[in-house]
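WARN no homologs supplied; continuing
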Amino acid sequence: MNMATASNNGLEFPPGFKPDSRWFRWCPTSPEHIAEAEAKIFNCIESQYTTSFVTISDNCHIRTLIVEPSNPSCLSNVPVVLVHGFLGGIGLFIKNINALSQTRKVFVFDLMGFGRSSRVTVQGSAMDIEEAYVASMEKWREKVGLENFVLLGHSLGGFMSTAYALRHPSKVRHLVLVDPWGYGVKPDDDRVVWTRNGENVYANDVSMRHRMILYFGMKINALTVLRAIGPLGPMALRKWRPDLEHHFADLVGSGVMYDYLYHCNMQEPRYHGFIACFYFSKFL
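OK structure emitted
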């Protein structure tokens, strides 16, 4: 397995990492902040585990967590791979990891461009971007030495897991989809903005208000707003997702999951993402 890491104050960083030396930045974040929040979450894992950055190309390193089954007799069971959703990361699976590792080996990774994995620019159409993500998942699989596994994807991870299974069916024993994303087919007619009850809706049929929503929806997203408000971002995230405290505080501690998600998503936006907005995938 090709796993390369560099350390800084006991924390793990990808090859070529340089500490953030800026004394001020508009968004109060840094790679060190993500590493610290991630470490707090990983401390809650009940079984033996290893972490690494799996190198799949010169400029792409995939953050990876491998958790051993709590019962050694379960090592022969088919392992499970967990794929997180949009704006997510490994840490969001913490409760599932502890439950699943009781009966099998668990592999979790940050998708390319998310969490602590490398931000890699991918050019081209929505299909080109999808192909690039699937290719990165396959290279990751080869590097960690998996041959057959249960693939579980949540949200965007469900979309990508399905795309991967369609291209590499021999590797996936079972496909498990949890609230998966999906996209309709982009109409050939550029005047069509969406479909309703199977019928095309054209731009001229849409009110000015909805046209404005559509226009700005294609230009900005939640991350744009969160970055724009700078130091108010952490507080806004707590207001936006109050449920996270309820779901995770008892295990990881108060505010830890907010810190983790905020720092994961405030890094340089140099990656492509999929946003379910009127058929189109877009650049973040």
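The chain has nine helices and twelve strands.
OK
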